[in-house]
Design a protein that fits this description.
5 helices, about 220 residues, mainly alpha, elongated
Length: about 220
C-alpha cells in the first residue's frame, strides 16, 4: 500500500538521521538502515517496561488525562506542520541559490552540506514525531469512549482468576487485556514523542552552536 510505504520511508529516514552525524567522512562511511531486527531490539525492552507501568498507572490514564493530552498534541501537530513547511521552503531556496552561485570553496560547500543535512534531519524526525502524535490521539480515544471502565484495576477482575472462567470471564479478560495493551502503547509512544522532541531541540542547539563558532564537525 502507498500509505504503508510512505510511513516506512519516514521511519527509516528518521532512524538514519538519528544515528549519524550531519557530515560523515568520505571514506569508511556506513549507511544506517532500519531493519526489523533493529526495530524489535530498540522497542522490545521499552514495551516490556511500558506494559509493566500500564498495570500500575491504570488510574492515571483516564478521561481527563486523555482530553488534556489530545488538546496538547493537536496544538503540536498544527504548529510543527507549519514549521516543517517553512523549513522545507527555506531548504529549497538555499539549495537553489547555492547551486546557482557556482561556489567551489571547500569550507562553504561543507557548511552548505551540513545545513542541507540538518534540514533533512529536522524534517524526518519531526515527521515521525507527528506520526506518533496522530497515533497517540487515536489510542487516547479509548479512555474518552470507555471512561471509568478504562481505569479498571485488572488485578481485581477476571484477568487473574483462571480457576472460574466462563464466557463472561473470557469477555472481561479480552477487554482488560486490550485496555492494558493500549495503555502500554500510549506510555511507549508518549516516551518516544518526548524523547524525539528533546532530540530535535538538542540537535538544533548543536547545529546553531556550530554555526556561531564557524565550525564544521567531520
Amino acid at each position: 500500500m502507498e500509505i504503508k510505504r510512505n510511513v516506512l520511508l519516514i521511519l527509516k529516514e528518521s532512524y538514519k538521521w538519528r544515528n549519524r552525524e550531519l557530515l560523515e567522512p568520505a571514506t569508511g562511511f556506513v549507511d544506517i538502515n532500519l531493519s526489523k531486527t533493529n526495530f524489535l531490539k530498540n522497542n522490545a525492552l521499552l514495551f516490556v517496561c511500558a506494559f509493566t507501568l500500564s498495570l500500575g498507572l491504570h488510574s492515571y490514564i483516564n478521561e481527563a488525562f486523555a482530553g488534556y493530552l489530545i488538546s496538547s498534541l493537536s496544538i503540536f501537530i498544527g504548529l510543527f506542520t507549519s514549521v516543517l513547511i517553512l523549513v522545507f521552503d527555506k531548504y529549497l531556496n538555499q539549495k537553489k541559490e547555492f547551486d546557482q552561485s557556482g561556489i567551489t570553496n571547500s569550507n562553504v560547500v561543507l557548511q552548505q552540506k551540513k545545513l542541507q543535512n540538518f534540514s533533512r534531519q529536522f524534517v524526518f524526525i519531526s515527521l515521525e514525531s507527528l506520526l506518533i502524535a496522530v497515533t497517540l490521539i487515536a489510542f487516547l480515544l479509548l479512555p474518552l469512549i470507555f471512561k471509568e471502565n478504562y481505569t479498571t484495576n485488572v488485578c481485581d477482575s477476571y484477568f487473574v482468576k483462571f480457576n472460574d472462567w466462563d464466557f463472561k470471564g473470557i469477555k472481561i479478560f479480552i477487554k482488560n487485556f486490550i485496555f492494558v495493551l493500549s495503555r502500554a502503547i500510549i506510555i511507549l509512544l508518549l516516551y518516544k514523542f518526548i524523547k524525539y522532541l528533546f532530540y530535535i531541540f538538542g540537535s538544533l542547539g548543536s547545529f546553531l552552536k556550530g554555526v556561531f563558532d564557524n565550525h564544521v564537525r567531520l
